[in-house]
Design the sequence.
């Protein structure tokens, strides 16, 4: 599918050759969107080619110190679908409420297809383009898992993603092409683009809690910078502050 669609690839990355420039632009974007901790407490850095980009502390961090604070307005969420261009597509089928991860991937694709005009372009530019998860396995890699449960699970994941993509393309044809409604995602959406968005979501999505004050029933979110922090077994030290509608991350131990 990908090889056949190469000539129609619509990935709108705002790429530069200089990785440091991308990081600097993302850090500036974080500051402008009131993410607490950037530059003062930590910075974004490329760890290595295998691990990619991550959060590096600038100084020693004591236990329970507030490392990061991210307001919901700086996140890509399923909560905002009602006010996004994707809403006509969303309300055209019960498929989206029943598949929140796919909805979040489509929200990401809406921002991707906006290009430079997207408020999230600096965030999208630093996201990985390749993954080592089963969905991205090549045929020779899958063949090495022959006869294992892992191979069956990988194939199911690939088939499900193709099925979701095919269904969304049909909806796009109906909503965008026939009804002439702009729903944010280009009708020429390729499988490569869709698989990339699903890869991002499946490796980075986080749950949003219910917030009765804001009338929010929960949802899923991509949280810039928070999704670049390493994880460790132990007590959970991230929480949602309903008063400020923000995610707060504190240090579980000294660093």
Sequence:
């Amino acid at each position: 599918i990908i090889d056949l669609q190469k000539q129609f690839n619509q990935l709108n990355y705002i790429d530069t050759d200089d990785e440091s420039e991308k990081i600097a632009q993302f850090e500036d974007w974080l500051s402008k969107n009131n993410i607490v901790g950037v530059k003062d407490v930590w910075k974004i850095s490329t760890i290595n080619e295998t691990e990619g980009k991550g959060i590096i502390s600038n100084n020693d961090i004591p236990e329970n110190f507030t490392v990061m604070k991210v307001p919901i307005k700086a996140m890509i969420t399923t909560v905002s679908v009602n006010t996004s261009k994707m809403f006509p597509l969303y309300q055209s089928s019960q498929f989206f409420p029943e598949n929140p991860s796919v909805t979040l991937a489509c929200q990401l694709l809406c921002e991707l297809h906006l290009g430079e005009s997207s408020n999230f372009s600096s965030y999208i530019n630093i996201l990985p383009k390749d993954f080592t998860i089963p969905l991205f396995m090549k045929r020779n890699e899958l063949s090495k898992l022959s006869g294992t449960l892992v191979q069956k699970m990988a194939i199911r994941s690939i088939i499900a993603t193709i099925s979701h993509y095919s269904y969304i393309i049909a909806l796009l044809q109906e909503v965008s092409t026939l009804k002439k409604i702009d729903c944010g995602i280009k009708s020429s959406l390729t499988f490569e683009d869709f698989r990339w968005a699903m890869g991002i979501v499946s490796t980075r999505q986080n749950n949003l809690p219910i917030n009765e004050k804001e009338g929010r029933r929960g949802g899923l979110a991509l949280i810039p910078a928070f999704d670049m922090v390493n994880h460790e077994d132990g007590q959970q030290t991230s929480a949602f502050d309903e008063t400020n509608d923000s995610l707060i991350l504190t240090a579980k131990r000294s660093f």
The beta strands are 42-48, 52-57, 66-71, 76-77, 206-208, 219-222, 238-241, 246-250. The first helix runs from residue 2 to 5. The radius of gyration is 19 Å.
